[in-house]
Amino acid sequence: TFCPITKTFTLTALTTPIEIQFYSACCTLPSGDILIVGGGSSSATIQFSPWTTNKLSYRRNMIACRKEHACVYMNGYVYAISGYDNKNKCMADVRRTIPRTTNGGP
User: Fold this and answer.
1) Which of 8-22, 24-38, 80-94 has the lowest mean pLDDT?
2) d(Cα 80, Cα 61) in Å, to the nearest integer?
3) CA separation for the pair 64, 92 (Å, rounded)
4) Distance between CA atoms of residues 102 and 76, nearest Å
């Protein structure tokens, strides 16, 4: 986590029972939270809030497992782009979701 006031970085270990550390994708939300999507054989979506709770929050899972994909936030939506499923089959698609905010969402 980077603090713009002190201009220092703090290392935060993410410990979860799911496989997010391998082949997952992430994007930054306007709130400063980080959305971690899929990875390995996981369909999980996890939101990391370094500026408030400094904890992980589990969000609604994706429809299918996805790894080695891209993830981007644009115009109020998060897009998971391409990648592979848990059987290493190429997923030539784009999935769109609305990220959770303080006003609700998945």
Assistant:
1) 8-22
2) 12
3) 13
4) 13
